[in-house]
């Protein structure tokens, strides 16, 4: 048995243990605070009902009121009168409602309008400015790449995403990137030709 004034011969003293534990606790707290500061902010939540939101559409900030269940497609068509994107299957199977969100082609019927807050949404309307049209739109007309025209806006937007992503895509790449878009008139060959002409720089 050690006497009170006898030095500790092995292990840590109680004083050293308490001191070490205090330092560790302070360090852990500092690390936790740093991690908390770097953690991404939770997205804004919305209660059930209608809310006023602001979306960036074709480079412009647009204010509109939507319910939490309102899809981006319905917000565009019913609240902003941007009817280029077509509501056909309404289940993400036909591609008729394709728009770009932050440069990526998405089915707007499968995305909530509130999920587009903070993103840049681009629709088919942006490709026509007065009498000036995008070369891809011009080549769709030149190649007669449409009949009823109902699928055309979504097909154009998917084609544009393909061109922006690949530059000069091969026929197989075009077919792959447009595989989610259905043309009930069957003008796929002319659509592929329009995309290829645009990639080559043809404008007439």
Which SSEs are present, and which pair or pack?
Elements: H1 14-38, E1 50-57, E2 60-67, H2 72-79, E3 98-101, E4 104-107, E5 120-122, E6 128-129, E7 132-133, H3 135-142, H4 152-166, H5 171-177, H6 188-199
Parallel strand pairs: 1-5
Antiparallel strand pairs: 1-2, 3-4, 3-5, 6-7
Helix pairs in contact: 3-6, 4-6
Summed up:
The protein is of the alpha+beta class. The chain is 37% helix and 15% strand.
Task: Describe the overall structure.
Helices cover 37% and strands 15% of the residues. With 204 residues, the chain is an alpha+beta fold. The protein has a single domain (50-199), classed as Beta-grasp domain (Ubiquitin-like (UB roll), Roll). The strands form 2 sheets. Strands 2-1-5-3-4 form a 5-stranded mixed beta sheet, sandwiched between helices.
CATH superfamily: Beta-grasp domain
Termini separation comes to 102 Å
Structural class: alpha+beta
Please identify, by name, the CATH architecture. Roll
The top-level CATH class is Alpha Beta
Strand content: 15-25%
Determine the number of helices (DSSP H or I, runs of at least 4 residues). 6
